[in-house]
Amino acid sequence: MNYLEMKNVKKNFGDLEVIKDISLTVRQGEVVAVIGPSGSGKSTLLRCATLLESMDGGELSYLGEKAVYTDNDGKVTYAGADELRKIRSNFGLVFQNFNLFPHFSVMKNIMDAPVRVQKRNKKEVYEEAKQLLDQMGLSDKENCYPYQLSGGQQQRVSIARALALKPKVLFFDEPTSALDPELTGEILKVIKDLAARHMTMVIVTHEMNFARNVANHVVFMENGVIVEQGEPEVLFNSTNPRMKDFFGKFHEV
Amino acid sequence: MNYLEMKNVKKNFGDLEVIKDISLTVRQGEVVAVIGPSGSGKSTLLRCATLLESMDGGELSYLGEKAVYTDNDGKVTYAGADELRKIRSNFGLVFQNFNLFPHFSVMKNIMDAPVRVQKRNKKEVYEEAKQLLDQMGLSDKENCYPYQLSGGQQQRVSIARALALKPKVLFFDEPTSALDPELTGEILKVIKDLAARHMTMVIVTHEMNFARNVANHVVFMENGVIVEQGEPEVLFNSTNPRMKDFFGKFHEV
Amino acid sequence: MDIVVMLAKLAEGMAKSVGIFGLTLLFSLPLGLVVTFGRMSKNGVLRNITKFYISVMRGTPLMLQLMVVYFGPFYLFGMKLSTSYRFIAVIIGFALNYAAYFAEIYRSGIESMPTGQYEAARLLGYSRIQCFFVIILPQVIKRILPSVTNEVITLVKDTSLAFAISEMEMFNVAKGLAAASTSMVPLVIAGVFYYIFNFLVAFVMEFIEKKLNYYR
Amino acid sequence: MDIVVMLAKLAEGMAKSVGIFGLTLLFSLPLGLVVTFGRMSKNGVLRNITKFYISVMRGTPLMLQLMVVYFGPFYLFGMKLSTSYRFIAVIIGFALNYAAYFAEIYRSGIESMPTGQYEAARLLGYSRIQCFFVIILPQVIKRILPSVTNEVITLVKDTSLAFAISEMEMFNVAKGLAAASTSMVPLVIAGVFYYIFNFLVAFVMEFIEKKLNYYR
Amino acid sequence: GQDKETEKAGETPAKTEAVTEEAKTEAAETEKKTEAAETEKKTEAAETGEETEAGTEEETKSDKKIADKVIAESETKAETGAKTDFKVDKLTVGFDQDFPPMGFIGDDGEYTGFDLELAAEVADRLGAEVVYQPIAWDMKDAELSSGNIDCIWNGFTMTDREDEYTWSEPYMKNDQVFVVRADSGIASEADLAGKVVDVQTDSSAQRALAGMSKLTESFGSLNPVADYNTAFMELEAGAVDAVAMDSVVANYQIEKRGADFNVLDESIAAEEYAIGFKKGNEELRDAVQEKLDEMAADGTLAEISKKWFGEDMTILGK
Ligand SMILES: Nc1ncnc2c1ncn2[C@@H]1O[C@H](COP(=O)(O)OP(=O)(O)OP(=O)(O)O)[C@@H](O)[C@H]1O
Ligand SMILES: Nc1ncnc2c1ncn2[C@@H]1O[C@H](COP(=O)(O)OP(=O)(O)OP(=O)(O)O)[C@@H](O)[C@H]1O
Ligand SMILES: [Mg+2]
Ligand SMILES: [Mg+2]
């Protein structure tokens, strides 16, 4: 089943066309890695998919339900507020700089949205949250505040927070780029675990090796278009000169 | 001639003995590199030598003139204010983070101290400053303000500022660690040039290759003592296990 | 005049001053929030009106504002005033004035919040109102507390301005006592009272600041 | 009352207010620097005295301070006052009060300066005094300008407090006119005057801020 | 009169209330009204805790007396024949608290003073509660016309202000005089040339001086000040050379301060004190005037005057 479908998505910032006609499908259980040079529009694509940025054209749907569509006149229509709310519950996003709520304890960060927004039973949510923290190796941190955690621990809490809402698709925007190499490993391991549990994920990353090892599908973007996409092995051995150049740079560092 | 002589220098911060009985001699025209792990007391040694930090014991002299000495009772005595002022004019220090005066133009940064402090002729100083800027490859920046320069350019201005006072000894405390690799190259080249002109220099650095290639004398510090010192080739091939360990780490990175 | 009588009188004035202080905070703190909403509204007319309101409140002396609030209803609309209106006018005048100051403080706090917090809240499904009151406001309060403290301490002294419309707060009482006893002692005692009042307020604010230090 | 007469009278008051404003700045800005030196002095006694001075100036109403400055010399020391002393007392009171505020602003600015600037200056041979006036102070001024602007704008309105010792500045004139003409027009005009005055001051301060933006 | 009664019961802070004509003629009605007044008094007493049961009782009696007297008078006085009774619950007296001995803070911390004591006695006889409202003197017109106070009773000069207020009969004579320090060597108005003179803003002295441009032009300067206390402090401290003010107040201040001040013999203006009511508020004026006359007749006025000034300085009924 197609969990996420984007069709002919366009996004401009003023005169700057940042996303030019991109189509992308993510199926259930798939792990998609989005790579590409800086400024190519990866983050913007993710922000359009998560409805943080309004689109200037194209279609966006989750599990077959249309969140955005464009009619023949080019008029972009968003679904109603109620429908959007429902659609939003289908996905979660893990930010590059975590964006935990600093005034909430770790536990409250995870529990607040399920309880307050989804109006779920507090006790039940608590049990699940404990399990999630366990899974993230943070069982002893439930009463800590974010400032008391290392960057890697904060990122794991933010993953747990997103998972607590039981999203169908989880997006990551460079989840490790605010971390030093040691902490990076922690997060990549967590994402690998999630992949093993068949979580559907879209990951923007600069970690080529990780993309290669974990993703089922890799998308290479440049200047607002998808240059090439496919299985990792195919892509990483592409003969496209632009891509060879790109990978070359990474090997150098 | 001994430009700098430190004998049995001691420095504590509260209970922490940061410098324990260090003696070091720098001869005219010599380039000394000070290396060692973080926290070993390299910066503190430099700050003692440049009178930024008061010493708790030992002797310090420039060109045979005593700035600090300790009598048999362990009482540390500093030279009088006038004498210290004279001694201070013997050395300059280039800071890790430049410490340029942001409200002065590049030219004023260089000229102000010679004119205001040394009361030298303005025109003459201007000519010399122009020459220094030329030498640093910054002839077109004389009217810029520090914020308009890159880190490497700022560091070169700060070197020129120190040189404008015609010091006998120039100290550097990790002059490149606030710079990215590309800019680091610029500064190391400038220091190499100075070495070629037989400038007497003491350089705290983490750039092992640079220490090896430019210094006549390398000092390896750890825990507030000099573990070993000598010619670079001797030192870098030392059999001391601690040093082997240290160099090993650097090769890894 | 007996010093005890003097102190008792001043204490009465002090009570009035404390009343003005407390009621002003009670009304201006929430009112300031409303003004901030106006100031940050997407509606240009509303935004400009609040902007003007704030600039007038901050650009003219509070004493003048008090007089306008007090006598305005009569001079402008011919309304009869009642005795109890004097104190009400003081509170209205102070609350309107301080709301403007607090509004600007709130705004600076809200604008200093990283957008990431809003975006995270949106992603997690919080409604706009939930997001503001649950996620943003508590953090804003912590951020603006030092500025609020400054303003609150200024308010302690500003209560003395109520004497411009003959409210019998401490400063006015001290003046009257000075006249009756033909000495400066009441003024000096009033000064000490203000000083202590301020000290207590600073102490309380510091306590609140410490309380909020459970997170960073 | 003729509006022209009214305006002429108010303009006179305005001139007085502007005079108080200008002279207060003239004296309090340097005086504040001296107070800062005391506040940051290594001498504990001096430091504590200045600390207390600052807290009293900031902790008690300016109106009270004005009265003490005006009548204090006579009632406390039996000194005979001269007529011209009223205005002098206003200026002394304002300057002493504002010096305390400016001192704290200076101090925050000086303390925010990175030690590297001092160390670089020391290495280059600047004397302590040269270092402070040539290297540190110019940078401090830029840093504190926004806070100074706030304080200066407060001063515009605070000039109205001079009426506490019957100085005929604008607010007092407006009150008198309002009483004589039994209307609120003079008060409103005074409000407009203050508003414009403030506007001009804000404009000038912004200009200075821009001027200092040649470096960062 | 139905709605009027309910208004009273609702405790609206009404100050003056005209009562319908039928009410005045019948004794039974008067009885009822005093009862109403009594219950109201009680509720107010409960609020302020100032008045005792006994006091209320007495007031009720005096209220009856008023009613009787009004009836008697309404027969004799032709011009006021139409309205004879008038009910006051509360008499709010506006005064300048920096103006001893007319109104100021007494040694016990309560407001006191000659005028305030008079006002209290009058209110007492009217069966009304007296409320002392200190005001900023230069705001007295606004306070009066906006209804915050019922009258200005504070050594308030009637002379030259006749048309601006509804006045009671003048009850006291006063001169506007110059007060100087005894050691200043100033003995006459001529000596004031080049000197600095204080005058209270919006005071009658200021008014009087405004018409004497020849004299004022000879001064070094004429300083308006906000209150007499400031003026006296300035005089004492030497900041000014003379204060133009009411002789009644000047004499009291001189005695109280025990300082060496002189009052110049030449008076600026002779004038009379009276009670100022809002223009057109004749009902209240009449009610107050009546009680004052009564007090003049039974010697209360002279008694109070002696208490404050050592002699009877009042002129009412003489
Ligand atoms: N809010 C915005 N307003 C204007 N331009 C924007 C905005 N956000 C992004 N851009 C521009 O859009 C382009 C794509 O930005 P985007 O952040 O999507 O790139 P990216 O691929 O995520 O890069 P990186 O790897 O550096 O994160 C860039 O040129 C950027 O400057
Ligand atoms: N001002 C100070 N007060 C207290 N301790 C200090 C101070 N300055 C330095 N130290 C301590 O002295 C020790 C040596 O510090 P120093 O900065 O000299 O090391 P370093 O060799 O320069 O290290 P790095 O390579 O990280 O710069 C450290 O343990 C440091 O924490
Ligand atoms: Mg990005
Ligand atoms: Mg160091």
- Helical region count of chain C? 8
Determine the most extensive contact between two protein chains.
Answer: C-D, 33 and 35 residues
Q: Main β-sheet of chain C: number of strands, strand sense, barrel status?
A: none
C-alpha end-to-end distance of chain C = 54 Å
Low-confidence stretches of chain C: none
Distance between the termini of chain E: 40 Å
**Helix/strand structural class of chain E:** alpha/beta
Give the CA-based shape of chain C: flat
C-alpha Rg of chain E, in Å? 22 Å
Bound molecules: adenosine-5'-triphosphate, magnesium ion
**Which percent range fits the helix content of chain E?**
40-55%
Q: CATH superfamily of chain C, called what?
A: MetI-like
State the total count of DSSP E strands of chain C. Answer: 0
Mean pLDDT of chain E: 75
CATH class type of chain C: Mainly Alpha
Family (chains C, D): Belongs to the binding-protein-dependent transport system permease family.
Protein name (chains C, D): Amino acid ABC transporter membrane protein (PAAT family)
Organism (chains C, D): Murimonas intestini
GO biological process, one term (chains C, D): amino acid transport
Structural description of this entry:
Chains C, D: It is a multi-pass membrane protein. Chains C, D: Pfam families: BPD_transp_1. The complex is a heteropentamer, with two copies of chain A (253 residues), two copies of chain C (216 residues) and one copy of chain E (318 residues). Chain A is α/β, with parallel strands linked by helices and 253 residues long. Chain A has a domain at 102-166. Chain A is built from nine helices and eleven strands. Chain A is globular, with a radius of gyration of 18 Å. Chain C is mainly alpha-helical and 216 residues long. The longest helix of chain C is centred in the first third of the chain and has 37 residues, at 3-39. Chain E has twelve helices and 15 strands. Chain E has helices spanning 2-9, 21-25, 27-48, 53-76, 114-126, 140-145, 204-210, 213-218, 228-237, 247-257, 282-298, 300-309; strands spanning 16-17, 87-88, 90-95, 104-105, 111-112, 129-134, 151-152, 166-167, 172-181, 196-200, 221-225, 242-246, 261-263, 269-273, 276-277. In chain E, the strands form four sheets. In chain E, strands 9, 10, 11, 12, 13 and 14 form a six-stranded mixed beta sheet that branches. In chain E, strands 6-3-7-15-8 form a five-stranded mixed beta sheet. In chain E, a hairpin with a 5-residue loop joins strand 4 and strand 5 (111-112). Chains in contact: A-C, B-D, C-D, C-E, D-E. At the C-D interface, helix 2, helix 3, helix 6 and helix 8 of C face helix 2, helix 3, helix 6, helix 7 and helix 8 of D. The complex binds adenosine-5'-triphosphate (2 copies) and magnesium ion (MG) (2 copies). One magnesium ion binds next to helix 1 of chain B. One magnesium ion (MG) is lined by residues 42-43 of chain B.
